[in-house]
């Protein structure tokens, strides 16, 4: 291992997943992996034989923020080190992930990777091309933050103000974008999503509302552009289908992912646009088993 500063890895999860074991095996001298869960009733809390460097942190139930925001706030409070890595439990962390990722900090300062969402149900599969172009590509080209893979140090942000805001909102990475500038390194992580149609519908609702409250200009631009593309797709179906397919093949090449689902770009548009507007008018959404009503950026109600 290099002589890099010790790192605190924050992993919100209620279960011991493959990602927990992968990250525990990558800890260097002085590093720690904080498994941040809700309470002692979670399955991960029942596990007693944790590898060296692994600590469990009980965040408690969220009151005015999302479960994810609550977990990150608790994890940052419990972390022993200045260098922090946020990550998620829903994608594969190869053996050199932590060493490579933290080494990137020495070259670029705060960095983030880019997710590529792969569907596990028919609707999520259909929406893959639009998630790649409207989501992943924007993160990659705009040097924006994905909360599933970001490294920074406490001195890079106004930590006290950030944590105060985090405990009053939904999106951890959406908020972090307002406090931190990052470089997106050229690595894309495959993130499986969905599993049920309900999950596939709830996800774009949450993402749309994150944009609505954190980046209203961006979501307005996406809505207008999507409507214009949809009108073109209806007016000239064959040319539109060819162009959209080629564009999404190019998007996949930029992201370093080759997926057959690029051929679904044309039909995906007819589902994506209605879901986009549905997400803007929907009053509640479900995330991680909890239902939220998001009245304003810092006005969150945990419904159930």
TrEMBL record:
Membrane topology, record value: Multi-pass membrane protein
Class of the enzyme per the UniProt entry, highest EC level: transferase
Listed pathway(s): Lipid metabolism; sphingolipid metabolism; Sphingolipid metabolism
Any one cellular-component term (Gene Ontology): membrane
GO-annotated molecular function: glycosyltransferase activity
Keywords assigned by UniProt, alphabetized: Glycosyltransferase, Membrane, Transferase, Transmembrane, Transmembrane helix
Compartments, as annotated in UniProt: Membrane
Primary localization class, coarse: membrane
EC number annotated for this UniProt entry: 2.4.-.-
Spans traversing the lipid bilayer: 219-251, 263-281
Protein name: Glycosyltransferase
């Amino acid at each position: 291992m290099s002589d890099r500063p010790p790192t605190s890895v924050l992993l919100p999860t209620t279960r011991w997943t493959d990602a927990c074991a992968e990250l525990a095996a990558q800890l260097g001298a002085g590093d720690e992996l904080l498994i941040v869960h809700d309470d002692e009733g979670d399955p991960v809390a029942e596990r007693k034989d944790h590898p060296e460097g692994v600590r469990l942190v009980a965040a408690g139930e969220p009151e005015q923020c999302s479960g994810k925001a609550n977990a990150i706030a608790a994890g940052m409070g419990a972390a022993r080190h200045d260098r922090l890595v946020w990550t998620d439990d829903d994608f594969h962390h190869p053996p050199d992930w932590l060493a490579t990722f933290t080494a990137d900090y020495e070259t670029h300062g705060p960095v983030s990777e880019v997710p590529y969402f792969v569907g596990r149900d028919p609707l999520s599969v259909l929406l893959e091309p639009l998630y790649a172009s409207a989501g992943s590509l924007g993160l990659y080209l705009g040097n924006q933050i994905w909360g599933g893979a970001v490294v920074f140090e406490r001195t890079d942000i106004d930590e006290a103000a950030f944590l105060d805001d985090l405990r009053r909102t939904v999106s951890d990475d959406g908020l972090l974008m307002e406090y931190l500038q990052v470089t997106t390194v050229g690595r894309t992580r495959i993130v499986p999503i969905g599993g049920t149609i309900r999950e596939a519908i709830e996800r774009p609702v949450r993402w749309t509302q994150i944009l609505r409250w954190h980046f209203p200009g961006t979501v307005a631009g996406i809505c207008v552009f999507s409507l214009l593309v949809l009108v073109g797709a209806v007016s000239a179906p064959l040319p539109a289908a060819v162009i959209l397919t080629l564009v999404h093949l190019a998007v996949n090449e930029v992201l370093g992912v080759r997926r057959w689902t690029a051929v679904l770009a044309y039909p995906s548009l007819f589902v994506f646009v209605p879901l986009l507007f549905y997400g803007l008018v929907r009053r509640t959404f479900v995330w991680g088993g909890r239902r939220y009503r998001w009245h304003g950026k810092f006005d969150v109600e945990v419904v159930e």
